[in-house]
């Protein structure tokens, strides 16, 4: 009983923002082993030690919670793919891509469900997906935090978008079947493929 009392007491000390963040963190952790379609409100409420009603109080609806979890996961992905502050451009790009590959490998079910949801009929999930990859592409043009110094033109953006799509598809296929490639091999293929694509632009 003492343990239950301590848990309840610690819960009451959380502010609404802290509780909401705790629930989102838990939702993201569950997405590491569970697809978005299989994510259960009941399981999450039980894991968090709260009622379903309290969870709906914070997020309104089941879909509202799912969308908030996906945004939280997308923010995590963006943070984990931040390039190192120091190093040559390609070294910094390698650091960013390493973060991306490791994130996808560690969160496959949730990441795959996000990709499926983004291609489905949910406009909010599609926007989160598109905004995240646009923000990742923007890093190439940031003066202080960019990896490779690229001219910000529609043609360069087009090639970057295609390279991002190839990278995502390649990593997900590699997770299913590495085809003899090590993680380092995969990283090198991804990083080394970008500049030749850009060099082909007129």
UniProtKB/TrEMBL annotation:
SUPFAM superfamilies from the xrefs? Homeodomain-like, Tetracyclin repressor-like, C-terminal domain
Q: Which GO terms describe its molecular function?
A: DNA-binding transcription factor activity; transcription cis-regulatory region binding
Q: Which InterPro entries match?
A: DesT_TetR_C, Homeodomain-like_sf, HTH-type_TetR-like_transc_reg, HTH_TetR, Tet_transcr_reg_TetR-rel_C_sf
Query: Which keywords appear in this protein's UniProt record, sorted alphabetically?
Result: DNA-binding, Transcription, Transcription regulation
Look up the DNA-binding region in the UniProt entry and give its residue ranges: 40-59
All copies of the HTH tetR-type domain together span 17-77
Q: What is this protein called?
A: TetR/AcrR family transcriptional regulator
Q: Which organism is it from?
A: Nocardioides caeni
What is the taxonomic lineage of the source species?
Bacteria, Bacillati, Actinomycetota, Actinomycetes, Propionibacteriales
């Amino acid at each position: 009983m003492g343990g239950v009392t301590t848990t309840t007491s610690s819960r009451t000390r959380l502010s609404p923002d802290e509780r909401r963040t705790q629930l989102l963190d838990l939702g993201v952790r569950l997405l590491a082993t569970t697809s978005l379609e299989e994510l259960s409100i009941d399981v999450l409420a039980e894991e968090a030690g709260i009622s379903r009603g309290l969870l709906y109080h914070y997020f309104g609806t089941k879909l509202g919670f799912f969308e908030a979890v996906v945004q939280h996961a997308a923010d995590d992905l963006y943070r984990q793919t931040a390039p190192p502050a120091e190093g040559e451009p390609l070294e910094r790009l390698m650091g960013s891509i390493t973060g991306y590959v490791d994130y996808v490998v560690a969160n496959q079910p949730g990441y795959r469900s996000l990709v499926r949801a983004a291609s489905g009929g949910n406009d909010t999930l599609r926007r989160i997906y598109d905004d995240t990859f646009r923000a990742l592409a923007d890093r190439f043009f940031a003066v202080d935090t960019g990896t490779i110094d690229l001219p910000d033109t529609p043609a360069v953006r087009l090639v970057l978008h295609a390279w991002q799509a190839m990278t995502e598809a390649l990593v997900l296929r590699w997770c299913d079947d590495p085809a003899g490639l090590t993680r380092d091999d995969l990283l090198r293929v991804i990083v080394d493929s970008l500049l030749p694509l850009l060099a082909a632009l007129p």
